[in-house]
């Protein structure tokens, strides 16, 4: 997937459908731009490989 560019329009359409959100036509272009920017921001984090042996931190309970 690193070399493949995702179909942002389809991702937005499917996500909106999944949560029952109607995107007005006049806002759709801006939603696509923001989704693409969010994906670019998250990409470095998504590329970090985690060791399978890592254990989660304990849950704090007061």
- SSE pattern: HH
Shape: extended
Uncertain segments are none
Helix content: 40-55%
Q: Indicate the mean pLDDT.
A: 90
**Structural class assignment:** mainly alpha
Strand element count? 0
Distance between the termini: 42 Å
Radius of gyration (CA) equals 17 Å
Please give the count of helices: 2
Strand content: under 5%
Reported for the largest beta sheet, the result is: none
Characterize the structure shown.
55% of the residues lie in helices and 0% in strands. The model has no long low-confidence stretch (mean pLDDT 90). By secondary structure, the chain is mainly alpha-helical. It has helices at 8-19, 25-46.
Structure in a nutshell:
The chain is mainly alpha-helical. It is built from 2 helices and no strands.
Write the layout of secondary structure elements.
Elements (H helix, E strand, L loop, with lengths): L7 H12 L5 H22 L16
Tags for this entry?
mainly alpha, 62 residues
